[in-house]
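Lab meeting notes turned into a lecture example. A postdoc, R.K., suggested we walk through two folding results consecutively so the class can see how the record format repeats. The first protein's sequence and C-alpha cells come next.
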Amino acid sequence: MKTFTSLCAGLLGIAAGLAHAGDGSDSYDLVARGRYLAELGDCTACHTLPGEAPFAGGVRIETPFGDVLGANITPDPDTGIGRWSFEDFQNTMSRGHARGGKRLYAAMPYTAYTKVTREDNRAIWAYLNSLEPVHRKVDTNQLPFPFNLRTSLIAWNWLAFEEGEYQPDPGRSAEWNRGAYLVQGLGHCGSCHSPKNLIGGDKDGEFLTGSPLQGWMAPDITGNRHTGLGRWSEAEIVRYLKTGANRFDMASGPMAEAVEHSTQHWKDPDLAAVATYLKSLGDPEQPAPEPLAKDDERLHTGALIYEDQCSACHTPNGEGIPNLFPKLADAPLVNSRDATSLIRVVLAGSRAVGTDAAPTAPAMPSFAWNMTDEYVADVLTFVRNSWGNAAEPVTAEEVKAVREEMEP
C-alpha cells in the first residue's frame, strides 16, 4: 500500500509541476530539463538531509556569522513553496527576495543565481513543483543577534550584490560563455572558492583564487600555474569533476559532496565548457616564490618522515600513481597559500567520493594517531618545498589548531 500511495503522490506531483509550467507537449521535457538544472545548481546540498525526503530542507549551513538551515522547497502549501507563484521564485533566484518580500541571506547563493536566465528558472520551477510535497516546517534563521535582523541585508545587498542575468561575451566562444554561465551562475563556484571581505561578500579582483571554508581551504581554481589549475589539462579538470579524482588531487570535504550530488551528473559538454572557462582565468605566468633553502632543518626531518610514511603511495619523487594516489610534485593544492586542507587530510585521512564513473574510490589513512604536530608540520613543509613546489612552511601551531577543531 505504501508503494502505491507513493506512486500516486508522485504522479500528482508531476501533474502539479506541469500545471505550473503551463500547457504544451514539451512540458515533460521542461521538467526533465529543470531536474538537470537543479543538479547543476547542487540544490541537494542545502535542501536535502541525508536519508530524508528530497528538498524538504533542514540542512545546517555554517557561515562566519552563525548557522542557517536550508529551506523546504517541496510544493507543500504550508511549509514549502506550494503557494508561491513563478514570479515569487524568480524574485528569489534573481533578487534574493522570498515570497512576501522577505530578504534572504546569501547562504542561499542568489548573488550567483541572479545570473541564471528566466527560462532556466522556469524549468527549475516546473521540476520543483513535480516533487512530492513534504510537510516539514523549517526555521531557516538560526543566526544570533544582530545578524538575525534581516533589515541589515538592505545595506549588505547595496555593498555586495549586483543583480542581473549573465550577459555573454561576444568576443569569446560559445563554449567559453557556457562555462562562464555555469561557473558564475548555477554552479555558484565563487560561494566557496572566492575570498570574502569583512561583511562576507566576495573580494574584488580575487574571483576563484581560494578561500577558507568550514575547516577546509577551497583552493584557487583559476589558471594560475603555481596555485591554480594552470598545470591541469582540460581533460584532467573534466575527470576530477566527473569522478572526484585525477592525478593531482582527490575531492575531499565539501568538494566531495559537490562531486557526489552535482558535478558527476553534469553532461560532458558542460564539464568541458567549465574547464575551458576556468583555464582562461587568472595569470598563468604568475611567478612562483622561492622554496626554502635546502639546508633548512625542517626539510631534513620532513624528508625522513616522508620516506617512512608517505613514499610507498606517493612515490619517492612525489609523482604518485595516476588516478589512485595524487601527484605531489608541481601540485597546485600543495602550493596553496593556506595549508589547512593538507593538514586536515594528513590528520584525518581521506577517501575520494565514489561516483558512477569511478565507483571504487581511492583512500588515504589517518596519521593523527602516530604523528605529532611537529612531525605533520615538518613533512608538509618538506612536501611544499620539494619537486618544483614552493610555499610557506607549516607550523606545529597550525597543525594543533586543526587537530583541536577536528576533535569532538
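The second example is placed directly after the first for contrast:
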Amino acid sequence: MRLLHTSDWHLGRSLHRVSMLGAQAAFLDHLVATARDREVDAVLVAGDVYDRAVPPLAAVELFDSALHRLAEAGVPTVMISGNHDSARRLGVAAGLIERAGIHLRTDPAGCAAPVLLHDAHGPVALYGLPYLEPALVKDEFGTEKAAHESVLAAAMRRVREDLAGRPPATRSVVLAHAFVQGGRESDSERDITVGGVAAVPAGVFHGVDYVALGHLHGCQTLTERVRYSGSPLAYSFSEAAHRKSLWLVDLGPGGELAAERVDCPVPRRLARLRGTLDRLLTDPAHTRHEDAFVEAVLTDPVRPADPMARLCERFPHTLSLSFAPERAGQDDTAGYARRLAGRSDQEIAEDFVAHVRGGSAPDAEERAVLRDALDAVRVDGRLREVAG
C-alpha cells in the first residue's frame, strides 16, 4: 500500500506579515497532483492543518478545495487535529465527510477506531491520534499524571488492543501529533511543554508498522518506522536550510517499508545574512540571495542610516532586520529577541527571577511553582479554544 505522509500545513499563516496563501495553494496543487500521479492509496495529514483555532476564511476555502479534489481523485485521506487546530471545529461534519473518503480524527476517545483500507495483500488499519493535551484528556485515558508520555502511552495501549483483535495479517499505521525524542525543533513550533517535559520516547509507538508524525517542521527520520514529514513551507528563518518534502511510503505485504522523499515546491528561498551593511551590499557572494526572503543581522559598530531602505535596493524581499554591533571589549551585544531565541518559557521565567533578585536563581520549589503557572496558562488557552 502506498501512503503519502504530510503535516503542518498551517493554512492561514504568514511569514513576517507576508501572506503565504499563494504558496500554500501551490503546495496543495502539488499534493493532489502527487497523490494522483504516484497512484497513492491514502494521504496522511498528521495535524496542524490550520495555523490557529479560528482560521481566516481564505484558509478554510483552501482546505475545502483540497478535500474536494482529493475526494474527486478517489484518494482516501486520513487527517488528525494538531495543537494549532481547534479539534471541534476541524471535526465538524466528520461523519458526513467520511462518506467521500475523507476521514477526520479529532476526538481522542476514537483513537482506537481505525480507518480500514485494503489492498491485494489484505487490510491496513490506520489509527488517528489527534493532539492529546494532557490536562484535557487524562480522565479519558485514566492516567494518574497529566503528562504527554502518559496519555500517548495510554492511547497506544488502546490501539494495540484493537489491533490484537484483528486478523494476524493486518498491517498498522498510526498518525500522531507530538514532540518525540530525537526530533529537531525550529523556531516556528508552538511550545507544548507540560510539567517541564515536552518530548516522549519513540518507543511509545512500538508494535505498529509506520508512524506518521506531525508537529516538528523539519522532515526527519527518528527510526525507520517513525518519521516526521515536516511542514511543506518554511514558516521561520530557522527553517532556511530545511528541504521541504513529503514522505512517499510503500508498505509491503509483511510490513516491509520503503520511504522516498518527494520535494515540495519552493515559492522563494530563505537566506540569513550577517555582516556590516557595506559588506552585505557589495559582496558578490550574496548575488544568489537577491531574490530570496532575507533575514539580515547588521554588525556595524554604529547603526547606519536608512539600513532597511538600502538593503531593499539589493534584496527587495528583506523581511527581518536586526542589529548585533561588534564592538571591541563588549561581549553581550545581542538584542533581546536574539538572547531569547531557542529558550523555553520556563527558562525565560527562571532567568527573570534570577535577574530581579540580583542573581539568586529560583530553588526547586519555586521552579515547580513557575512550571505549574505556565502549564495553567497554556491549558487555559486550549480550554478557551475548545469553548470558542
